[in-house]
């Protein structure tokens, strides 16, 4: 649901199967004013989750919790900030041609 904003800022994951025929991932990331972070999360979260040791051992609840915290760390890392900043610049550049 877009609500009162002019653009959709949420991003979603509908990944079936996730890593085998027995699992799937459905998620919505709320943009809160921009789609930059929500799209980043949608792009990288599945990989973080499936690489998590608790996920590999079938401890899915713990794996989800750890993966959300890890996503925060990734976004704050030097590489994560570089990717986010690049996406901001690209978005601003594309607005010039709208």
Low-confidence stretches: none
* Strand and helix order: EEHHHH
Strand content: 5-15%
| Share in helix | 55-70%
Number of helices in the DSSP assignment: 4
Radius of gyration: 15 Å
Give the spatial strand order of the biggest sheet. Answer: 1-2
Structural class: mainly alpha
Main sheet specs: 2 strands, antiparallel
Based on Cα principal axes, name the global outline: globular
The total beta strand count reads: 2
Mean pLDDT: 87
Gap between N and C termini, in Å?
23 Å
Give the tally of structural domains: 1
Please sum up the structure shown:
With 98 residues, the protein is mainly α. Helices cover 56% and strands 10% of the residues.
Account of the 3D structure:
- The chain is mainly alpha-helical and 98 residues long.
- The chain has one domain (11-95).
- Helix content is 56%, strand content 10%.
- It has 4 helices and 2 strands; from the N terminus they run E-E-H-H-H-H.
- The chain has helices spanning 36-51, 53-56, 60-76, 78-95; strands spanning 11-15, 25-29.
- A two-stranded antiparallel sheet has the order 1-2.
- Helix 1 (36-51) packs across helix 3.
- The radius of gyration is 15 Å and the shape is globular.
- The protein starts with 10 loop residues before the first strand and ends with a helix.
- The model has no long low-confidence stretch (mean pLDDT 87).
């Amino acid at each position: 649901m877009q609500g009162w904003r002019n653009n959709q800022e949420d991003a979603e994951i509908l990944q079936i199967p996730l890593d085998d025929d027995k699992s799937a991932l459905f998620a919505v990331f709320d943009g809160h004013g921009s789609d930059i972070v929500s799209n980043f999360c949608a792009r990288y979260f599945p990989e973080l989750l499936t690489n998590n040791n608790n996920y590999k051992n079938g401890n899915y609840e713990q794996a989800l919790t750890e993966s959300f915290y890890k996503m925060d760390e990734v976004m704050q890392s030097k590489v994560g900030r570089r990717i986010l900043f690049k996406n901001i610049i690209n978005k601003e550049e594309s607005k010039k041609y709208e």
